[in-house]
Write a structure and sequence with these properties.
465 residues; FAD/NAD(P)-binding domain; 3 domains; 6-stranded antiparallel beta sheet; globular; disordered C terminus; oxidoreductase
């Protein structure tokens, strides 16, 4: 069989099943058809709605600018697929190549894409979580319900957790002139993702907008009235907060339980895969017919010393779905690695925050452009003399250049820029739970298009070996 015939066989034949009918699953389905796959395509999703966009749920939907039902993901093309919505996958039969469904049915496959994403972490006490007025924000229904309560004008909202989602909810409350208290176990907002220095900036931003920010404390208990409506929260420092709406923003749980005992390497950090998005089995052996994409994927990144990364980013889900779908219908010699540098953005308190790279894999940070006092700056992160990430506050125009520096293992701190900060002296990055890595940069990324992006070795002392 010729190379062209082999490629055509991969593209056209068989049955592909995608478990997870959200952003990654949808974009993967479209890419499969773009790549010429003409076989059977099935999408399985636990929600009854067709795929919708999640970033607006903590922003435009809560303010009432966009109705929750108007967040449907635009389709780039028709995908000619069988949709099985409102029924979750309950298991995977590797030997029989079947996806088991909660309603007792099963769906056979030749190739499978796992894109089951994450769900909101609920309040741990089930009785307290069931109180009227206690919300999480992950689904369309979550956001619609919270928006209705905010529009009714609650006396005070308590947000538990000051990560990106919690901070965005607090920002919406300020925009709607609703008194809001934020309780955060760390010493400042956003420190888990961006470190202490940026956390102190975020804390100042929140307080300047009237947020009652309580850091270094945990919520220990929620109380309700006789009608089962939440009324008060008790804090670990002995304080209390009276609130009639509580938003639990404690991160997500990756949807991997359905893979328990399946033989796939799945756990709390996601489904492990290689850079080609092929899933590992429980023995650490790569599979040839099972792929992973999106928030549930745990993928090694060569730029970050092959550390397995689990990323809950919109852009990562799209790019990884594209690579996974291409590789599903391509022979080994035509497959691509997923080498995209992570990017993330957030809008809160009138400021656009955008990051590139993986800030937590850093030991130093330096403000390289603008000034913190003006709340318009760029800060670069470094590890052992290499740029690993950057974050901007209302100054994102240079981030593509920082992305290039990350890909090319540029030295840290970087060379002077236009709009250079007055003080570029690096300081310790300080993360609440520091991630320890043991080596300097080992590779740089070459090429621009997915078909040509590869890595080349680089000396930890600078330049290629």
């Amino acid at each position: 069989m010729t190379s062209a015939e082999n490629l055509d066989r991969f593209r056209r034949q068989g049955r592909i099943v995608i478990v997870g009918a959200s952003l990654a699953g949808m974009r993967a389905a479209e890419t499969l058809r773009d790549e010429g796959f003409t076989g059977s395509l099935t999408l399985i999703g636990d929600e009854s709605r067709e795929p919708y966009d999640r970033p607006p749920l903590t922003k435009q939907v809560l303010t009432g600018w966009v109705p929750a039902h108007d967040t449907v993901l635009p389709r780039r093309r028709e995908i000619d697929a069988t949709w099985m919505l409102g029924v979750p996958a309950s298991g995977l039969d590797l030997a029989g190549k079947r996806v088991l469904l909660a309603d007792g049915r099963d769906v056979p496959y030749d190739r499978l894409l796992i894109a089951t994403g994450v769900r909101a972490r609920p309040w741990a006490n089930e009785a307290e979580a069931a109180l009227e007025g206690v919300f999480v924000v992950r689904t369309n229904e979550d956001s619609a319900g919270l928006q209705e309560r905010l529009a009714a004008g609650p006396k005070r909202v308590l947000v538990i957790g000051a990560g990106f989602a919690g901070s965005e909810v607090a920002s919406v409350c300020c925009e709607l002139d609703i008194p809001v208290t934020v309780a955060e176990a760390a010493e400042a907002p956003l420190t888990g993702a961006l470190g202490d220095m940026i956390g102190s900036v975020a804390a100042r931003l929140q307080r300047a907008h009237g947020v009652d920010l309580r850091c270094g404390v945990k919520v220990t208990r929620l109380d309700g009235d006789e009608q089962g409506r939440v009324r008060r929260a008790y804090l670990s420092d002995g304080g209390t907060v009276d609130a009639d709406v509580v938003v639990v923003a404690l991160g997500g749980i990756r949807n991997t339980e359905w893979l328990l005992d399946s033989g796939i390497a799945a756990g709390v950090w996601g489904v492990a895969c290689d850079t080609g998005c092929r899933a590992f089995d429980i023995n650490g052996l790569v599979t040839d017919d099972i792929f992973v994409a999106g928030d549930v994927a745990r993928c090694p990144h060569p730029v970050y010393e092959y550390r397995f990364l689990s990323l809950e980013h919109w852009a990562n889900a799209v790019e990884q779905a594209h690579v996974a779908a291409h590789n599903m219908v391509s022979p080994p010699t035509h497959r691509w690695p997923h080498l995209a540098i992570p990017m993330f953005w957030s809008s809160q308190f009138g400021v656009n925050i955008k990051s590139v790279g993986v800030p937590i894999l850093a030991d130093q940070i330096a403000v390289t452009q603008g000034t913190v006092d003006d709340m318009r700056f760029v800060a670069a992160y470094g590890y052992r003399g290499r740029v690993t990430a950057a974050v901007s506050f209302d100054n994102a125009k240079w981030l593509d250049h920082y992305k290039y520096m990350i890909e090319t293992a540029a030295p840290f701190p970087p060379e002077p820029f236009p709009d250079q900060a007055a003080d570029m002296a690096p300081i310790p990055a300080h993360f609440p739970d520091p991630v320890i890595i043991t080596h300097g940069a080992t590779v740089l990324v070459t090429g621009h298009e997915p078909s040509e992006r590869r890595v080349a070795a680089v000396s930890p002392y600078g330049g290629r070996p």
